[in-house]
Protein: FYVE-type domain-containing protein
Amino acid sequence: MSKSQPIFIYGIPIKDDRGKLKNCQLCGAKFTMSVKEHQCKRCKRAVCDKCAPNKAQVQKADGLSKKSHRLCNFCKDESDSLKRFLEQYKISFNKDSFSQQWLQSFGTDTAKAKNDFLNALDDAKLSKDTNAYDIFKAKLEVVINDIDGFVNYSIKDFMVAALKNVESFRQKEVVKTSILRVAGTLLLLYPQIGYSHEVVLITYFLLCFASEASAYILLTAIYAHILPSQLYPKANTKYDLVNENAIVVGILRDALQVDSNDMSVIKSFLSQKLRCYLVTLSINLFLFETTFFIISSVLMSGSNGYMDLLAQMAVLCQLSNQEMQKNKFNHEETELFMLRSLRTNQLSVLYKQTQNCDFESYKKVYITTRSDSIKVDNLNLSARQSMIKPDMQKVSEINQKLQEQVDRRDLENKKLNEEIIQLRDKVKQLQKENSILLSQQQNNDSEMYKIKLHEMRIDNSDLKSQIEQLKNEISKYKLQIEGGAKEKATKQKTETVDSDYENDLQEISQFKQKYEQQIRNLKKQAEEKKQQNQPNQIQIDELKENYENKIKLLQKQVIQLQSQDNTEEIRDLKIQNQQLQKKLEKMKDERNKSELIQQKNDEIELITELNEELTKENQRLAKQLRDLKSQSGASSAQQIKVLEEQNKLLELKLEQYQILIQELVNIIDKVKYQKQKQLEFSDMKFKQKEDLEDVKMVAEIRTVQTQLLKGMLKENQAQISDLISNITQMRQVLEKSKSLKL
Ligand SMILES: [Zn+2]
Ligand SMILES: [Zn+2]
Structure:
C-alpha cells in the first residue's frame, strides 16, 4: 500500500508482524513446521492454525474484499458481537438510536433538537465569519476519503454496517451531505471553535447514532460543555494540559489505587498522548466496543463529560499499566496493545470505581481555566428542573450500608481465595510426593533385576565359550581323522590321542594327589584336635579321682569324728562335703563338654571316610581312562561321537538356559507390573488419593461459594453504582437549579 498515513486524524499504526515473531500472538504457541503461522487479515496479528480457523470477507480501503481471508478468533468474536449490537439497537446512519439517551442528559430530546437545528440552519445563513466553514468545505472530500481509508478495522466495520441501508454508490455522498449540514452549521454559528479534521471525525461518529438534528445538538454540547476552549482547534495556543494530567494522576491514585512507583511511566504517556485522546474523544484509538463505551458514558455525564473523559483516560492507563512498564517509552506498542486487547468489561468495572472518586476538588481546577466564550442558547434546561429533589441523607445512609456489605464480602472472598490457594498447594505437594515414591520404587526394582540379568548373561556367555571350546576340539579331532585317513597314520593319530589321554591321566593323578594331600591335612588336623582334647580329659579324670579320694577320706574322717562325738567338726566337714560334691557336679558337666568334642571328632572321621570314597572314585575314573586308552585308535571316532553328543547336550542345555533367561525376564516384567499395580492399590496411595479427592471437593465447594459471593457482590456493586449515578444526577439537578435561581 503506497498510500501515506493521514497526518490529521489520530490513529494507531498497525504493524505487519508476519514472519517476525516466534510465537502466536493469541495463544503463545511456538511456530514450527507443524504449527504454521498465519496472519489475521483484520487485525494483522501473527497467529497459529488453531487461533485462526475461520475465513471471511474483510473490509479494505476500497470496500469489502472479494476473497475470503483468514480471521483470528479474537476478530471473529469481535465482528460477530458488533453485528449483534447493530441489530439489537437498530443502529443506522442519520437515524436516532442512542442519541435519545444522550440528548436527555443535556436536558433535551429529539423533538426539541429538530426544532433547534432548523433554527440554527436559518441562523447560519446569516453568518458573516465563514473562514472556518470555508476551510472545512474545501477539505471535506479528502477528509472523508481518509476516514474511510484509515479508521481502524473495528470502527471501519461499524461504519460500513451503519451505512448498509444506503446503496453503496450513494454512501459517500450521503455521508458528505450530512456532515456538511451538521458540522458546517456549527462552524458558521461558532467560528471561535475553528476547523480541524477531528470535527469531521466526531460528526461522522455521532451521525451513526443520531439524526442530523440530534448530531448537531450533541456536537454543540461537546464543544460547549465537554471540551474546554483551550482544546478548540482555533485556540492554537500551546496549552500543556498540566491540569488534565494532574486530574488523571489523581484519579489513578485515589480511585484506582495505582502505586506511585508506576506513575512515572503513566505520566510520560499522558504528557505525550493525552491531547490526541481528548480532541478526538478517543474515536479511532480503540476497538468499536471500547470507543462506544467511552463516548456514551461521556455524553451521559452531561456537563460533567470532560471529567468523565479524564476518568476514562485514567482507567485506560490503569488497564495498560503493565504494558506501559514493559514498553517504557515506546508508546506506539502500548497503544497497539490498547487497540487490540482492551475489553469493555474490564473498562466498565474500573470505570465504576472512578465514580466513587470525589471529583469536586478536581473540577475546580478545570472550571477556573474554562472559557465561557460560547453561549449555547439552544440547550433547553427546563427538563432538569422538573426532577424531584432526593433525600440526600437517606441516600448516603443506604450507600454507606451497601459499601459496608461490599467490604465484608470482599474480605470473605479474599479469605476463601487464600484457602483455595492453600488447598491447591497441598494437593500439589501430595501429588509430588506420590510421584517421587513411585519413581523410587521403580528404580529399586529395575536396579535389582538388571544385576540379576547381568549375572545370568555372564553365565550364559561362559557356557557359550565352553561349547565353543568343545567345538574347536571336535573340529581338531575331525581334522586329525581326515589327515590320518589320507596318510598311513592311524598310528600317529593314535599316538596323539594317546598322548592326550596321558595328559588327562596326568592331570587326574595330579588332582588325586592334591586331594590326598588335602585329606592328609584334614586327618592331621583331626589328630591334633584329638590330642588337644585328650590332656583335658586326662586332667579331668585325674581331678575327679583326686576329689573322689578326698571325699572318701572326708567321709572316713566324718565317721571317725562321729564316733568321737565332735558335732561341730562334723558340721564343718559336712559343709566341706557338700562343697566338694558341688565341685564334683561341675566336673561332670565338664565331662559332658568333652563328649561334645568327641562328637566333633566323629564328624571329622566321617569326612575322612568321604574323602576316602572320593579317592576310590578317582581311582575308578583313572581305570576308565586306562580302559579308554586301551581301546584307543579304533575308537577315536567313537570318542568324537561321545564328544559330539556331549556338545549337543550342552547346546540343549544352553537353549534351556536361554529359555530360562527369557522366562526370568518375563517374570521380572510381570513382577514389575504387579509391583506397580500393588502400589496403585497400596494403602498409602489409596489414602493419598482420598486426601486429594477431599481437598478437591473442598476447593470445589469453595469455588462455588466464592462464585455465589461474587455474584452477590456484583449485584451490590451494581446497586451502588445505580445509586451513585442517581446521586450524581440529583446533584447536577441541584446545581443547575441553584444556578438558575441565581
Ligand atoms: Zn494461537
Ligand atoms: Zn484478528
